Amino acid sequence: MDGPPEPELVRIRDVIYQTAGIFHPDNKLRLLQDRCGRRMKELKVQTLREYSECLTIRPTRQAELIALLNEITIGETSFFRNQPQLDALRRIVIPKILEAKSNLPLRRLRIWSAGCSTGEEPYTLRMLMLEELNVQLKDWSTEILATDLNERSLAHAEEAVYGSYSTRNLTPSYRNKYFIPQGDKLQVNALARSNISFSRLNLSDDSRMTFMKSMDAIFCCNVLIYFDLASKRRVIQHFFNNLLPHGYLFLGHSESLFGVNDDFRLVHLPGATAYVKGERTPAGGKSL
Fold this sequence. Notes:
By secondary structure, the chain is of the alpha/beta class. It has eleven helices and ten strands.
């Protein structure tokens, strides 16, 4: 944008940051203005000042803030998006987690898809778990918690109907086993939709984040790119606290915790990386 940004746009940016931890630097304010423009058109509001009031002092401000966040947090994803990461989960990470939990009475695996967007990631993870049910996950129950800030994305995930772009990486085997044709689209079948719970969660909501306990693995791919350093540090600290001692954190392909958090240990996997919480001691031992 040429010249200093409009004060009302800066005020709206601050409201979004305080609420969701998402920060728009000055060079991204045009994108924010475009998203605000969509909501202003919907509300028949003429000025940014008036729209700022819709977000701050009007009785419907909470609902409008959610509506604006729905516009801002539109993610792009697909099934089996990062195959090396998924292969590492299946061949290396799950065996390590099962080893660490081998002496526990409750044989349960819990995975959190944080920032699940329209659902492709948690459904992919569920399909991988189903493939292992008669192999390494025999006698184990699996639970996937899928959360996102965007209500529209969550509604899409619950509907579980996807077009050719989202499903382009599916093998014929997965397509036939876990999907039902719906016209020119595909719907995830009941088996692959089982044991997944979808819910709206703001990663900057400290009180809600505190309750996401006892996770074996957390996937948070291409979500933290919208956060500034302070917000990233808060979210990553919650992830660390919510993982069990042997737990793993997966980020997007180009993301890193360098300069963000020193508690996790970076592990190099074939074609992928992950962060582990408790490998300072042998598997199953107490974390330091």
